[in-house]
Amino acid sequence: MERSVQVQPRPSDLNELWRRLRTNGDPQAREQLVLAHAPLVKWVAGRVASTLPSHVEEGDLISYGLIGLTSAVDRFDPDREVRFETYAVTRIRGAIIDELRSQDWVPRSVRQRAREIERAHTALEHKLHRAPTDDEMADALGITQREFQDSLARVSQATVHALDEMWSVGDGSGDQVSLLDTLPDDHAPDPETIVAEQGLRDQIGEAIEALPEREKVVIALYYYENLTLREIGEVLGVTESRASQLHTKAVLRLRSRLNAEDLELG
């Protein structure tokens, strides 16, 4: 029995599909472009699934991601000097995260604990003029070291996509940008966007530099090298759970520092 093999379109074929779609809105060209780039959805969904509780089905994430891919095909401008894959991954990931958030799958108590940790971290950092230790954080929260670690483990599921959240650009314009959008992108073609985001980029860079070394490594491996938490744990010689805790602490420190700077500017 012969198996059907899906042949990946050649670059010249893809260019022709883009031309047909942009010239006359050819629905068949649109469908073929979505199918040609469908593996991107599975790749992004797999990355996101590795950071979520086991009850979240990867198949559901793929269906959410397909919405993002379709939107990317509809909105992409082939004339811009940026690869479609780079553009699409962001929209696929965003569609998955938006759908997860709309379902509000994180318990309210976990969200509340995350806010408490952020506030405690901000207060201690102002008081101590350095990043607080786990013991100091636990004391400030009135819980034991073990309870603090357990809280980080639970919060990690709620904050794993915190860098995708929108932040106000500190120029009084009211514009917003995601934390991920401010990270360096070799394919970024728009100088105006780079200039507009430079202030926030500098703030984030300074905040990352102030992180403890292991947390800085986790941020670099997770957001720059695209390693999973399990892979990061192997690099650091710790468990996946511990890598998740380090990631959560790093993100909370970044959010705390940036929020504190916003308050000072205000």
Total DSSP helices: 12
End-to-end C-alpha gap: 69 Å
CATH superfamily of the largest domain: Winged helix-like DNA-binding domain superfamily/Winged helix DNA-binding domain
Mean pLDDT across all amino acids: 76
The CATH architecture designation of the largest domain is Orthogonal Bundle
Structural class: mainly alpha
The low-confidence runs, each spanning 5 or more residues with pLDDT under 50, are 1-7, 160-172
CATH topology of the largest domain: Arc Repressor Mutant, subunit A
How many E-type strands? Answer: 2
Write down the Rg.
Answer: 21 Å
**Biggest sheet statistics:** 2 strands, antiparallel
SSE succession:
HHHHHHHHEEHHHH
Spatial strand order of the main sheet: 1-2
Shape: elongated
Q: What fraction strand?
A: under 5%
Which CATH class of the largest domain?
Mainly Alpha
Number of discrete domains: 2
- Helix content estimate: 55-70%
How would you explain this protein's 3D organization?
The protein is an all-alpha fold and 266 residues long. It has two domains: 11-102, RNA polymerase sigma factor, region 2, helix turn helix motif (Rna Polymerase Sigma Factor, Chain: A), CATH 1.10.1740; 108-265, Winged helix-like DNA-binding domain superfamily/Winged helix DNA-binding domain (Arc Repressor Mutant, subunit A, Orthogonal Bundle), CATH 1.10.10. Helices cover 68% and strands 2% of the residues. The protein is built from twelve helices and two strands. The chain has helices spanning 11-24, 27-36, 38-49, 58-75, 84-102, 108-128, 134-141, 145-159, 191-209, 213-224, 229-236, 240-265, and strands at 166-168, 176-178. The chain has a two-stranded antiparallel sheet with strand order 1-2. A hairpin with a 7-residue loop joins strand 1 (166-168) and strand 2 (176-178). Helix 6 (108-128) packs across helix 7, helix 6 crosses helix 8 and helix 11 (229-236) crosses helix 12 (240-265). The longest helix is centred in the C-terminal third of the chain and has 26 residues, at 240-265. The relative contact order is 0.09.
